[in-house]
Amino acid sequence: MAEKDSGSIRIGVGGWTFEPWRGIFYPEKLPQKRELEYAARQLTTIEINGTYYGSQKPESFRKWYDETPEGFVFSLKASRYSTNRRVLAEAGESIERFFKSGVLELKEKLGPVNWQFMPTKKFDADDFEAFLKLLPKQIGGRKIRHVVEARHESFRNAEFVAMLREYGVAAVIAGDSEFPQIADITADFVYARIMGTQVDEPLGYPDKALDLWAKRAKLWAAGKLPKDLAPVEPVKTDGKARDVFLYVISGAKVRNPAAAQALIERI
């Protein structure tokens, strides 16, 4: 994981069901029903994407909890019905429905909830703040961590960063992607999604790139900031240890598990 004076570092991929991983990441004859069990022992976190497209059943969350080891954490993509709307201030009912769908059955394995916005969604300060006010800080005594994935250039502004910091919500740090990079630290954890894996690289990334991302993760966990990323505001650090969630997403998806495993080895 990480050093004593650092937060935990968890590294994984998006989802676990992907046919091209069979025979490459998953052993040849591994039954499909055991893929999560296997993946959760090679990685330390997984971002669930299915929750973005529709509600899952409570029994599914219970099953995923039971199939994964102690200390494993899932992050969830929140429902698109909450974020893909013209007026975000009207998302309250959808947000409430998402949290009542069974996600809390993950118990202590419930990690950050990623509220992903369409690349066409522009920043509207009043409406976005109204949305942040709808996000529950805790449910049933369990703290809920929120992260926003804003993918339009208009979000790269100081007002947005200050707003996230006020509400204790993280911004997704997009790595190696076409989306704007907001590398400001606004919450008590860091959430990065790196998207540059290449099919001709056996580990997804060249060694130097893997070393660099591992170094960045360690700096975040120790309460420091990588000097080579692009924050919106002048670099600030409070030196407080933070948990880090880093997902190898998109790019050459067939290589993503290998990249995640290579990063775990470097931490």
Descriptive report:
β5 and β6 form a beta hairpin. Helix content is 30%, strand content 18%. With 267 residues, the protein is α/β, with parallel strands linked by helices.
Text of the CATH class: Alpha Beta
Number of domains: 1
Helix content class: 25-40%
Model regions low in confidence, pLDDT < 50 over at least 5 residues:
none
Mean pLDDT: 96
Order of helices and strands: EHEHHEHHEHEEEHEEEHEH
> What is the CATH architecture term?
Alpha-Beta Barrel
Q: How many strands in all?
A: 11
Strand order of the largest sheet: 8-7-4-3-2-1-11-10-9
| Alpha-beta classification | alpha/beta
Number of helices: 9
Largest sheet: 9 strands, parallel
In percent, how much strand structure appears in the residues?
15-25%
Ends apart, CA distance between termini: 7 Å
Remind me, CATH topology? TIM Barrel
Structural shape: globular
Under CATH, the homologous superfamily reads Protein of unknown function UPF0759
**Whole-angstrom Rg:** 18 Å
Question: What are the salient characteristics of this protein?
Answer:
267 residues, alpha/beta, TIM Barrel, nine-stranded parallel β-sheet, two-stranded antiparallel ribbon, 9 helices, 11 strands, 30% helix
Outline of the structure:
The protein has 267 residues and is of the alpha/beta class. The protein is 30% helix and 18% strand.
Give the helix/strand layout.
Layout: E1 9-14, H1 35-42, E2 45-48, H2 50-53, H3 58-67, E3 73-77, H4 80-83, H5 92-99, E4 110-116, H6 125-134, E5 138-139, E6 142-143, E7 146-149, H7 158-167, E8 170-171, E9 173-175, E10 189-194, H8 207-221, E11 243-248, H9 256-266
Helix pairs in contact: 6-7, 8-9
